[in-house]
Specification:
six-stranded antiparallel β-sheet; 31% strand; 179 residues; Thiol Ester Dehydrase, Chain A; single chain; alpha+beta; 4 helices
Length: 179
Amino acid sequence: MTTIDTADLFSPAKRRERVVDWQAPGPAAKAAAGMTGMEAMCAIRDGILPEPPMARLIDFRLRIAEPGRIVMELEPHEGLENTIGILHGATAAALLDTAMGCAISTMLPAGQGAVTLDLKLAYLRPLSIRSGTISAEGKIIKLGRQTSHTEGFVRDGAGNLAVHATAIFSMIGEGPATK
């Protein structure tokens, strides 16, 4: 085993700190309870409802909310990197899971939602802080009464496809049955 001088690795000059704040999710969920999914997504996008804590933690933003389609954006930062200098794969997974679930929400009445049953990702190219603004798009493939199917894409700042995903969501809550 190679001997490594770790003193410099732990020096104060190499230390980073990031403070994350968020709004309590309970009151926001209560405020959104009477809204359709599309109304809630637009309210988050427009700053009327606070972003969910996970969005604040990773630092992604909802940019586009259309019926059956959501686009999230992330300015990558080194706090999301792993030890080989690329963004951790969980970053793309969280972006896609959120974008695809929110895409379903845009088509739902008040009181109804969706939770992830199955999430499959294919990582096609690495992402890093040099990737530019990362976008994650979620689109509905099939909206169903019990389960819904979605597709998602993560692209780097140049528009190159980095991650492709498919997911199945279980429909939950009250409200008229979806078609």
